[in-house]
UniProtKB/TrEMBL annotation:
GO terms for molecular function: nucleotide binding. Coiled coil: none annotated. It comes from Catenulispora acidiphila (strain DSM 44928 / JCM 14897 / NBRC 102108 / NRRL B-24433 / ID139908). SUPFAM superfamilies: Glyceraldehyde-3-phosphate dehydrogenase-like, C-terminal domain, NAD(P)-binding Rossmann-fold domains. Residues 132-241 form the GFO/IDH/MocA-like oxidoreductase domain. InterPro entries: Gfo/Idh/MocA-like_OxRdtase_N, Gfo/Idh/MocA_Oxidoreductases, GFO_IDH_MocA-like_dom, NAD(P)-bd_dom_sf. Residues 10-123 form the Gfo/Idh/MocA-like oxidoreductase N-terminal domain. The lineage of its organism: Bacteria, Bacillati, Actinomycetota, Actinomycetes, Catenulisporales. This is Oxidoreductase domain protein. It comes from the Bacteria. It holds the Pfam family GFO_IDH_MocA_C3.
Length: 338
């Protein structure tokens, strides 16, 4: 690896679509990193290269002499691109999902682990300030016991996606962030899908699952809605947190200690919760993609806990496994145990 103390890490990027052009912008201004070349067989339609060489594919990118690469090609090409980079000894971050199926995700994970390389997955929601702050508050016990996690992720169809459905494109965000925020794994999943837009893949899913500690989770995901929504609600014994990952806002709704309204005599035996204070936290809001790429840079350098901050390929494999279980559940009409 040519990146050593006092010299910049040489970075390469393959894939210059919607996500790739943002990677190019951030990598081009990241401390300690030099973006030496970009690659896309279709050229640079968005002008993301900013004067850098635009190469035809992964082999040319490897030949440019890079320490690490970011892969932002369509999901169906993740495995072949990632394996070529692993063989060349290049640390790699692959955009989510890690791969289109469990088999190729497993192959990628094991190949990078055997080679001793940093293999990471671009699950960017982990780096959203609202979810990072929420995770710390849950860890500190501010909600007490967690009962339920509900996520809603809906919006219009993204024309950039042709090779996967809404589960692997969008639901993978919520699968990963829910497991990460709660520090739990999924033990079961049940799902229903719909095909409403005439495309090959599903465009709507409703999922219900259970985590290892018994927490119930619900994910509602579609790309059929004109309203864009990205919200995570965590309910527990002390109230609930609402994280809006579009605005990076985090709000806490506390349970009040007020007694049940006395005139409702039939309700007197029920000791429920009532509405208490609402607090919206003032939190710093750095760009999640920059935070993610800084963590990946630090992981490659093995400094500042970078390897603990990135989403490892093994974690990315677990996400693919849950996503496939959800699709399997929907196809068979059964609950899938994980």
């Amino acid at each position: 690896m040519s990146g050593t103390s006092g010299t910049k890490l040489r970075a390469g990027l393959i894939g210059l679509g919607m996500m790739g052009r943002h990677h190019a912008r951030v990598l081009g201004s990241l401390d300690g990193v030099e973006l030496v070349a970009v690659a896309d067989p279709g050229g640079d339609a968005h002008g993301a290269a900013n004067g850098r060489p635009v190469l035809g594919g992964v082999e040319e990118l490897i030949a440019a002499g890079i320490d690490f690469a970011v892969v932002a090609v369509p999901t169906v090409f993740h495995a072949e691109t990632g394996l070529a980079l692993a063989e060349a000894g290049v640390h790699t971050l692959i955009e989510k999902p890690l791969a289109p199926d469990v088999e190729s995700a497993t192959q990628l994970t094991e190949t990078f682990e055997r080679a001793g390389l940093v293999g990471a997955v671009g699950h960017i929601e982990r780096f959203n300030p609202s979810l990072q702050n929420l995770r710390k508050r849950l860890e500190h016990g501010e909600l007490g016991e967690v009962f339920q996690v509900v996520t809603r992720r809906q919006g219009p169809f993204p024309n950039r996606i042709a090779d996967v459905g809404v589960v692997k494109d969008l639901a993978t965000h919520d699968i990963d962030s829910t497991a990460w925020v709660t520090r739990q794994t999924y033990t079961s999943i049940s799902a229903h899908t719909a095909y409403r837009s005439g495309r090959e893949h599903e465009d709507l899913i409703a999922m219900t699952g259970r985590l290892a500690d018994g927490t119930v989770v619900n994910h509602l995901v579609n790309w059929l809605s004109p309203m864009k929504e990205r919200v995570t609600i965590v309910t527990g014994e002390k109230g609930c947190f609402v994280a809006d990952t579009l605005t990076a806002d985090l709000t806490f709704y506390a349970n009040a200690s007020a007694p049940t309204i006395p005139t409702w005599e039939a309700m007197q035996a029920f000791r429920g919760v009532s509405e208490g204070d609402m607090v919206r936290f003032a939190i710093p809001k750095p760009e999640p993609l920059r935070t993610e790429l800084e963590a990946f840079r630090d992981a490659v350098l093995d400094v500042d806990g970078g390897r603990d901050r990135v989403v490892s390929m093994r974690q990315g494999l677990q996400v693919v496994r849950v996503a496939e279980a959800a699709l399997d559940s929907a196809a068979k009409g059964t609950t899938v145990e994980l």
